[in-house]
Amino acid sequence: MPLLHSLCASSSFILPITTAAAAAAAQLAAKPSVLSPAPSSSSKDFAVPIPGLPTHVKEKILSLEVMGVDAGRALSLNPALRTASLDSVHSVIAYLLSKGIHHKDLGRILGMCPRILTSSVRADLGPVFAFLSRDLGVPDSGFRRVINKCPRLLASSVGDQLKPALDYLRRLGFTDTNALAYNDPVLLVSSVEKTLIPKLQYLVGLGMSREEAVGMVLRCPGLFTFSIDRNFKPKYEYLVGQMGRSLQDLKDFPQASSCGDVGGGGDGGVGGVGTLQPTYPCLNLPS
């Protein structure tokens, strides 16, 4: 019997989480379908009521909801999930569990990256775990920690993304693969051409040498994760223009660019730079 059949709403299956399943079923029955777009709305809006859907579709939706995954969002972000078989979804879940991922992790991991649900175990997921083991030295017991830190690893191609990023980071001087795996795995899912290189070039453009810029990111890898327009520029302008600091201060204290978002904007975003100093006392650099 497939692994997740115990989570599906079918007369032939028994739900071990009765309360959660019932709540999910009631919620789904009361909201639009996640499979058929309404003719008068965008493709992200769905109009066919759950009771009118085929049994296998209802089972798939309920399986996602019981795991803690928003089925509507997952199907919107990953349209291939609409036609994926239950068996294929079950095989992905079974494989993740066999690698040490816990049931309680699935909602967050799959909710963040629903594309994982339609991945091929052999062609997509297997190579990622092999990369973690072979290239980063992560033991089987460490897989869960790394994947929970960065679920996007499971949705990334080893040949097109992970290996090129690792090779580039190693050339820069990131030799501690343990730190990359457990502390900064997001760097491995960052595009070399569109993210890593442009951010290094921005630092060089401020007036420092490439060696100095590389030294900064090695001391503070978080610099690679922030937006140039929404984080680097306003913080640098504030440090120099409002606080009277110099480029040398930034070289000596790179944490000034990674201690938080200016003005509270998410993902490196900024609100108003005037709120930066009182909100982030770490920008009170040493005199």
How would you portray this structure in words?
This protein has 287 residues and is mainly alpha-helical. The chain folds into 3 domains: 1-118, no CATH class; 125-188, no CATH class; 191-283. Helix content is 51%, strand content 0%. The chain has helices at 18-30, 55-67, 71-77, 86-98, 103-112, 121-134, 143-149, 158-172, 177-182, 192-205, 210-219, 228-242, 247-252, 276-279. It starts with 17 loop residues before the first helix and ends in an 8-residue tail after the last helix. 30% of the residues are buried. The model is unreliable at 1-49 and 260-287 (pLDDT under 50).
The major beta sheet can be summarized as: none
Mean pLDDT: 77
Number of helices: 14
**How helix-rich are the residues, as a percent range?**
40-55%
β-strand percent reads under 5%
Low-confidence stretches: 1-49, 260-287
Along the chain, the helix and strand elements come as: HHHHHHHHHHHHHH
Give the CA-based shape: elongated
Distance between the termini: 67 Å
Radius of gyration: 23 Å
Number of domains: 3
Structural class: mainly alpha
Number of strands: 0
